[in-house]
Design brief:
The chain has 2 domains: 267 residues, Carbon-nitrogen hydrolase (Nitrilase/N-carbamoyl-D-aminoacid amidohydrolase, 4-Layer Sandwich); 33 residues, no CATH class. It is built from 8 helices and 16 strands. Helix 1 packs parallel to helix 3. The protein has a 6-stranded mixed beta sheet with strand order 5-4-3-2-1-16. Strands 6-7-8-11-14-15 form a 6-stranded mixed beta sheet, with helices on one face. The relative contact order is 0.13. The longest helix has 17 residues. Helices cover 27% and strands 27% of the residues. The protein is α/β, with parallel strands linked by helices. It is globular and about 50 Å long.
């Protein structure tokens, strides 16, 4: 049976872990009642985003009571949750945990911190340094946190690892307004320019990897900034299959269909024809990094 996934577009309270934990547990309880297999929350859903001087106060390790409550809840439903991770070496990360069957399957630490415009994440967080697929009973997932999607390395590594879906958690603000010119018989419409950009990135990612993209963003206001919502899911051909949501809390449910993904990859076998050794040589030439020695695979041995 194909897994059912709920993307929970929530409005966390800045710095209030107790209230946010209650919000998560209520959402998890409803999703469990509805027969959902996996529920995913946005970036930093347990803490809020513009934490600034609160960052160290809300940082938690995986044995903290808040995380233990969610880990216990994952015995009934798989959970993806954003939090501030306090690591054993003293560093603090913008982290996303994948919880399942009462244990932590993995933690993705945001690699590409945003420190431009209104953002100053590098002031408070250490950067993650890897993209490791999550091996869930519901499939193989590539976790990306907001700005990670704006860089090609994580998506490419997950693409080569053959993930079943990208799961993007975001705390993306709304910026600008784009006017859509009307077609015959239609009215003019407007949308946030930031949402239009996100939609383009998601659709492009699906098309050049032939992989479904699940995007969950948050809503609400913090520090005078509105978060843009627009939670949505597209299949491996970039066809919209769920959402987008507006600017209010809500959720969308999607069934991850492996048959449709296989068909897309058969029609357009991009991974089969990829030549990563050329990229490795080019990176070595441009950066001075020496890639590990490996022989080039014979034609047709790199499956899609």
């Amino acid at each position: 049976m194909e897994p059912s996934i709920r993307l929970a577009q929530v409005e966390p309270t800045l710095g209030n872990l107790a209230a946010n934990l209650d919000l998560h547990l209520a959402q998890i309880g409803q999703a469990t009642h509805d027969g959902i297999d996996l529920i995913a929350f946005p970036e930093l859903s347990l803490t809020g985003y513009f934490l600034k001087d609160q960052t160290s106060d809300v940082a938690r390790d995986l044995d903290a009571p808040e995380l233990r409550s969610l880990i216990e809840a994952s015995r009934d439903i798989s959970i993806v949750v954003g939090f501030v991770e306090s690591a054993p070496d003293g560093r603090v990360y913008n982290a996303t945990a994948f919880l399942e069957d009462g244990r932590v399957l993995g933690v993705h630490r945001k690699v590409h911190l945003v420190t431009y415009g209104m953002f100053e994440e590098s002031r408070d967080f250490a950067a993650g340094e890897c993209f490791e697929p999550i091996e869930s009973k519901h499939g193989r997932f590539g976790l990306l946190t907001c700005e990670d999607v704006w860089h090609m390395d994580g998506a490419y590594l997950y693409f080569m690892a053959g993930v079943d879906a990208f799961l993007i958690s975001s705390a993306g603000p709304g910026r600008g307004v784009t006017r859509t010119e009307p077609e015959d018989g239609e009215d003019a419409a407007s949308e946030l320019s930031s949402n239009r950009t996100w939609r383009t990135i998601q659709d492009g990612l699906a098309l050049w990897t032939r992989t479904p993209v699940l995007y969950v963003n948050r809503v609400g206001w913090e520090d005078g900034i509105v978060f843009a919502g627009a939670t949505r899911a597209v299949d491996a051909d970039a066809n919209l299959v769920a959402g987008p949501l507006g600017l209010d809390p809500g959720h969308v449910d999607v069934t991850l269909g492996s048959t449709a993904t296989r068909r897309s990859r058969t029609r357009t076998p991009l991974r089969r024809d990829e030549k990563p050794w050329i990229l490795a040589r080019g990176l070595a030439a441009h950066t001075g990094l020496v890639p590990p020695s490996r022989s080039e695979p014979e034609s047709g041995t790199n499956p899609g």
